[in-house]
Each structure stands twice: as structure tokens, then as C-alpha cells.
Amino acid sequence: MKNVSDLTEIEAAQELEYIAFEMAKADIAYYQHDDPYLTDAAYDALKLRNEQIEKRFPNLIRADSPSKKVGAPLKSDFKKITHKVPMLSLADIFSLDELKEFVASVERFLNTADNIEFTSEPKMDGLSFNARYEHGRLVSAATRGDGKTGEDITENLKTISGLPHTVQAPDFPDIIELRGEVYMSKADFFALNEKNAAMGKKTFANPRNAAAGSLRQLDANITKERRLSLLVYTWGEVSNIFWKTQQEFLQKVQQWGFPVNPYNKLCRNADDLIESFKVLEQTRADLPYDIDGIVYKVNSLALQNRLGFLTRTPRWAVAHKFEAEKAMTKLLNIRIQVGRTGALTPVADLEPINFGGVMVSHATLHNEDEIKRKDIRIGDYVIIQRAGDVIPQVLGVVTQKRTPDIIPFEFPKTCPECGAHAIREEDEAVRRCTGGLSCPAQAVERLKHFVSREAFNIEGLGAKIIEDFFAEHIICRPDDIFTLEERNGGDDLFSNAQGIHLETKEGWGPKSAQNLFASIRERKKISLPRFIYALGIRQVGTATALLIAKNYLNFTSFENAMRQKDTSKLLSIDGIGEAMAKDIVEFFAEPHNLNIISNLKRYITIEDFEDTTDYHSKIAGKTVVFTGTLETLTRSEAKAKAASLGAKVAGSVSAHTDFVVVGSDAGSKAKKAQELNIQMLTEQEFLDMIK
Ligand code: IVH
Fold first, then answer.
1. Residue 164 needs a FRET pair 20 to 30 A away by CA distance; which of 271, 317, 427, 549 works?
2. Which of the residues in the chain have pLDDT under 70?
3. Ligand 1: which residue has its CA nearest to atom 23?
4. Distance (Å) from CA 89 to ligand 1 centroid
5. CATH number of the structural domain 92-321
6. Pocket of ligand 1 (CB under 6 A)
């Protein structure tokens, strides 16, 4: 790439056009689809280049220049909220020299040589929100959007624990907008991706995308299921600002009960700032969440006011971004992992390389399309990056180092574990093995699922032991679990091999073996929903299993209907759609699965589902919505009670709602019920009604 100082005016204009186009495309992928394809570093590089060219050729600044916008235009599905005070962004700096220059520029502007106080705050890598409180009540919340208008995420934000819905402190301003960041911890991100992968759903590239994808859900119930967190770091409109410094503000919001970052620090001079940068850079990998830099702010509000703003960014604050750690290494292999549902996931095996003190030998490759798009081949030298991202990712290939013997990577069309066809449905990102339980990878993952807590929940038979037993052919299929005790001891009659002697295996003794047999015996009787869930049918989680159990009441009638591909009843169940029905029917069309089920039935009893629903209750068949905090019941208890009395519990108020049970701090749902003239009940009235 040419130096900016060497560009002709025509070249500069062309490049600005190219950057505007690329960044607009990247913005849409990032903000609207929560699915970026440029890394943060690549994006920042474009932004920086744009800035430099515009600085040299101010006459060429385009109307659609990336330097003039924050974020991307909004998707229309959400209601919009216009920010009373715009949500601006910060100028980025990347080095300690630039940090010193920032401090110097503040001093120059204020014409002082005195030390100026700053705060240093970790720059959370999530997405910013604005939460508006009126008279101590949370009334609305929005995303940043384009900085002027954001999306209405009131209901979504309310599901995040730690955010007070009401504040009673006497000094809490009548009107105050608190701003901060919604994020997902690394642990919750991993758990979510694991769960999604097992269900064959989309996985997220990093915690920030997972947070964005989880928060921007039209159905706030989905947001609630995801574990999001938030922190407050600034404010928008306020009726009465009485704090004099950023530090005081942070202390105040904490007193009011809002979470703030414990790593926020007061810095008395430039050296303190540098020190805090170094400390956080070191601590960063150990933090439970991703940060992508540090934000420095002039502490005094009086000085902030004097410094004021440039077009889009304050003069009194900057974001010091961490350099994304990059390294080059050789891609030794593209290994394909196979999950419980047969999803084939590519993993990069790398020549081990020291990455900021940690040896790295694997990186994610996401999926088939990603490998194709980046044309990544085995034997290539690749650039890997560990930025905010928890798992290193392969950025791309150093094509100059590619030798002629390196051939394009063909994503396997058969399962690497069992050889069965691996097919890819039209609308899916993943390719799947069709081998079912004859595929060892799927078999072992399914066994783990089979014994898991919400399925058979067999104590003493965890994932690790399943893996060992599978490798040693002790347990190969679910029914093997129930014949284990019988098979233990004697010699194997069908081969010359020795039988199983669990008590003499390493790590086992007579006591632990007996304990295991006892806990297996205990589980020979199983409830219908648990059994359906344990089968590990794609998309069938605990909630769906319960719905199926409720509607079919015994396993035989469910199995018979599925074997006859009769989905009429299934599709009439609220919550089960065509795609899920198709997966269920496919499961029962697979001879392996039928075989396992029939073997299992020889050893276990699947209890019929006892429908405890009281169809004579006053709320049977009615649609009920709960809102606000209840006094004597938890929300889940209330919902379970209503459901057991035959009511349908809905998450939002509509014309179909029959009652809304209103607790304290009820918000928009109560308002909506009023508007729609729907009967509202207090908690006591509800309890009386169901007595
Ligand atoms: S202050 C006028 N403080 O960084 C500036 N922002 O590039 C208001 N961010 O949109 C923002 N941590 O999403 C501020 N401690 C912090 C922050 C922070 C993360 C994000 C925020 C903002 C972006 C600016």
C-alpha cells in the first residue's frame, strides 16, 4: 500500500470511495446481522487510513464518509427511540506516544501546566445502552444505533440481572439516563456456543456478537435465557447533575445500586495513566470478560465542559485500543470434529506458537464457507489473531509463502469418524454426518447427553467416564448402561476376551462399582419427558420434550405416530413447528434409533405422563400474562401454577390475553393491558381465583 503522502488526488479519491463502501458493508454485517466478517483490527486499519487520507485531502471528504457516522442505519423491526442527548463515540489511540500527546493536547487546550486528573476505565467490548429513569422508575432503554436514534430494547434490558428497575435513593435525579455497556462473560459465551452447537444452531464469533445477538431479540424471553451482564459508565440527559467529577459519578451510581467496573481508577498524571494501561494489558487475559482497550476521561466536569466536543467525539476523552495480538504459524491440519447431532466443525491444528506467554496450537475456523472465503489450505502459513476474542482465530493466509504443492482444501463430504455421507441442508451453515449412532463420535456425544443431568441423570457416570467406557467398549450404546452390572464379573462368552471387572479397573474399587450399579438401578424407571429428552433428537430440548409428553401421555403412542410419520398432533402443539417435526420424524425413521429404543425398553420402564392439569379451574384454557414483582410467589412458581391449572402463560400482552397479573413495579405490560381493556388481577386476586 502506498504511503498517504505519495497518493495523487485521483488515487486518494478512489481509495476513499473504496473505504466508504467497505466500511458500510462491514457496519451492516456487524450492527445489523451481529455477524462481522472484518476483524476489529482490519476495521480499525481502514478507519485510520480513511482519517489519514481525509487529513491530507480535506476537499475529498465524502458525504458518506465513515468518519461522519457511528454505527449503521437501523433495522426496522425494533421501535425507535431518539436519544435526548446523542450517544457519541470516542477517538481511538493505539500507542503510549499517542497517550502522551492526548494528555499534552488537553493541557494545551486548557493552557495549563498543572497535572490534570483523569479516570482510566476498561473499555468493555459489548454494546452500549441508554436506560432512562423517571421519578426512580426505569421507563425506557435503547441501543446506541447511529448515535441519534437507537432501538427500543426496554423489555430486553429489563431481563438483565443487576439493573435496578426502581431506585429509591433521595438524591436520585427525577430524570436521569444512565449509559453503559451490555456484555457477555467469556464463560457464558462458551456455554451458549456449546449449547447452540449441540442443537445445530448458529454459534457466535465472540462474546460481543453473542451479547448483541442476545440483546437485540424481538422476543425478550430469548434475551432472558441468555446470560448477559451490564456496567454503567456515563450518563445522558439528567435533570440535576450534582456530581463534580467522573469519579464522583461512578461512586454515586454504585451507591444507587448499579454495577460499575471495579477496575476504574483515578489517575493523577500521565505516568499514572501509562501505569494503568500496563496493568490492564497484563490483567486482561484473566478478566472474566473481554475488554478491547482503556477509556481515559478528564475527571473534572468543569474541565470537560471547557474542553467540549469535536464533531463526533469529546476532546476530554479517548479510547486507547489494545493491539490485537497477531502471529504467523503453519497450519498443520484442518481437523473436523463431529458433535452429538453430527455437525462437522473444522478446527485449525497449528504448529504451536507462543502467544503472549500462552502456547497456542489450535484456532477456530468457524465453518465450511469461512474456509472457502479465505481460501485456507493445509500447509499454508496463516496469520492468527487473539484480540478480545477468547479463542484465536485464523485471519487469513500469507499467500506469498504458499508453495505449489499446497492444494485447495476440500471440505469432506463424508464423516471423518464413520464414513457416512455428510450433507448440508440448503439453509444451514453446517454439514452433518448422516451416520447417526453408528458414528462413534455421535455415539459418544449422545451417550454423554443420555446420562446428563436433565436426562437420565445417572450419578457417577459423567462425561469423562462415558468417554473411557466407550473407548474400552464397556458402554457403546445407551442400553449397555443397563446391562453393565449383569456383564460385570463373568468372562465374555462371545469372544475370548476377558469380561469386565469394574472393581479392578484403575481408579475403581468394589465400593465405587457397587455405587455405580446402584445409581443405574435407581434410574431404570424414568419419566416420559426425561426419556424423550434423553434420546437426543435434534432441536428437542427439555421444554419441547415436556410438550410432547403432555400431548402424547405415553411413549408408545408417540413412537407409533412418529413411525407412521403422522405429525398432525405434533404440529397442533403450540411451540412445535414444521422444522422440528421433520427432525423428530427423521429420528424415528432411522433403524439404529428404533433398535436402541426397543433394546432400552427391555431394561427400563418409561412412566406414562401424568397430566396433573386441573381442567376445572377458573383459569383453564385462559391466556395469562404476569408482570412486575410478585410478593408471595416467584415468577416461575406463578407460571408453573397457572400452567398446571390449564392456563397458557404468555410473555407479552395482546388482544388474546385474558388476564394480566400485576405485581409491583409493573411497566409497559400493565399499561398495554389497560389500553386493551384486559382484566388485571393483583397477586391476591390471582391466588383467590386459583384457590
Ligand atoms: S464513555 C462520549 N466509557 O466505547 C463518550 N465508553 O468508542 C461516551 N465503551 O460507545 C462513552 N467502555 O460503547 C465510555 N468506560 C467506558 C466505555 C465506553 C466501553 C464503549 C462505548 C462507546 C464506545 C466509544
1. 317
2. 32-34, 69-76, 200, 356-358, 387-390, 490-498, 612-615, 636
3. 89
4. 6
5. 3.30.470.30
6. 88-90, 121, 123-124, 128, 144, 181, 233-234, 295, 314, 317, 319
Pocket test for ligand 1, best of 295, 304, 312 (most atoms within 8 A of CB): 295
> 3-class DSSP state for residue 325?
strand
Neighbours of 349 (CB within 10 A): 15
Place of cell 485447495: 408
Question: 586: which 3 cell numbers?
Answer: 427423521
Residue 582 CB partners (closer than 8 Å, separation 6+): none
* Catalytic residue set: 123
- 623-689 domain in CATH 3.40.50.10190? yes
> Which pLDDT does position 496 carry in this prediction?
44
Q: Is 653 helix (H, G, I), strand (E, B) or coil?
A: coil
CATH topology of domain 526-606: DNA polymerase; domain 1 (1.10.150)
How does pLDDT run across 529-578, given as a tens digit for each residue?
999 999 999 888 887 898 899 899 999 999 999 999 999 999 988 778 88
The fold adopted by the segment(s) 4-69 is: Helix Hairpins (1.10.287)
pLDDT number for residue 356 = 56
Tell which atom from ligand 1 comes closest to the C-alpha of 89. 24
For residue 123, the CA-to-ligand 1 centroid distance in Å is 7
The CATH number of the structural domain formed by 324-434 is 2.40.50.140
Over residues 503-538, the pLDDT tens digits come to 888 888 899 999 999 999 999 999 999 999 999 998
Is the overall model pTM greater than 0.85, yes or no? Answer: no
Domains 436-481+483-523 and 526-606 fall in the same CATH topology: yes
Minimal-distance CA residue to ligand 1 atom 2: 88
Identity at 133, one-letter amino acid code: Y
Q: What CATH class is the domain 436-481+483-523?
A: mainly alpha
